[in-house]
Write a structure and sequence with these properties.
The complex is a heterodimer of chains A (116) and B (113).
Chain A: E1 4-7, E2 10-13, E3 19-25, E4 32-38, E5 44-51, E6 57-58, E7 67-73, E8 76-81, E9 90-97, E10 105-107, E11 111-115
Parallel strand pairs in A: 2-11
Antiparallel strand pairs in A: 1-3, 3-8, 4-5, 4-9, 5-6, 7-8, 9-10, 9-11
Chain B: E1 4-6, E2 11-14, E3 19-25, E4 30-38, E5 45-50, E6 54-58, E7 61-66, E8 71-76, E9 85-93, E10 102-103, E11 107-112
Parallel strand pairs in B: 2-11
Antiparallel strand pairs in B: 1-3, 3-8, 4-5, 4-9, 6-7, 7-8, 9-10, 9-11
């Protein structure tokens, strides 16, 4: 149980284009999902908290107009990187909060974005 | 000072060794503690989670929490080459931070045959 999928696993796009990444909880409903960014050999950096049916909450320093988050259902959240630039190249990982009381999060496999 | 400090390693141990991974934290609001394992270019995998001080065991893994000292540990017994990965401690608290995790920097572990 508690499986989270991400699609695509890897994407290469040209500078100036937009890219959408999907995050799905496959066997449980997730009212809250999280989006992280991870640079090589570094820990995860929380970008935003996504709540089903409401606007996402962004961490300080994260541009909400550049990283659009939509959480339209209890099993799907999407992150759209708009007008991507090479500095947006990174490993993007989503997680979904479990239904238990421990706030445990289950992570997707990640999406490697390369902007050329 | 970071809220969560994790011994950066890297650690290199022989197969069969007992591994100790440690984190300290400064935020007294942290109530929930987790350990994740992350293989290269993969998402983190939840290994253990706990709430109270004391030990929690699951197979070869034991999570230990000492809230009075703000210190958590993960022990791996009979380590295997397949345990080679980055281990991340993570914590969360109540109130406005409910649900958000704060991660340690991660410890790279290599178990060699």
């Amino acid at each position: 149980g508690a499986v989270v999928s991400q699609h695509p696993s890897r994407v290469i796009c040209k500078s100036g284009t937009s890219v959408k990444i999907e995050c799905r909880s496959l066997d449980f409903q997730a009212t809250t999902m999280f989006w992280y960014r991870q640079f090589p050999k570094q820990s995860l950096m929380l970008m935003a908290t996504s709540n089903e049916g409401s606007k996402a909450t962004y961490e300080q320093g994260v541009e909400k107009d550049k990283f659009l988050i939509n959480h339209a259902s209890l099993t799907l959240s999407t992150l759209t990187v708009t007008s991507a630039h090479p500095e947006d190249s990174s490993f993007y990982i989503c997680s979904a909060r479990g239904t238990g009381v421990f706030n445990e999060q289950y992570f997707g496999p990640g999406t490697r974005l390369t902007v050329t | 000072q970071k809220e969560v400090e994790q011994d950066p390693g890297p650690l290199s141990v022989p197969e069969g060794a007992i591994v100790s991974l440690n984190c300290t934290y400064s935020n007294s609001a942290f109530q929930y503690f987790m350990w994740y394992r992350q293989y290269s270019r993969k998402g983190p995998e939840l290994l253990m989670y706990t709430y109270s001080s004391g030990n929690k065991e699951d197979g070869r893994f034991t999570a230990q929490v000492d809230k009075s000292s703000k210190y958590i540990s993960l022990f791996i017994r009979d380590s295997q080459p397949s345990d080679s990965a980055t281990y991340l401690c993570a914590m969360s608290g109540g109130g406005t931070s409910y649900g958000k995790l704060t991660f340690g920097q991660g410890t790279i572990l290599t178990v060699h045959p």
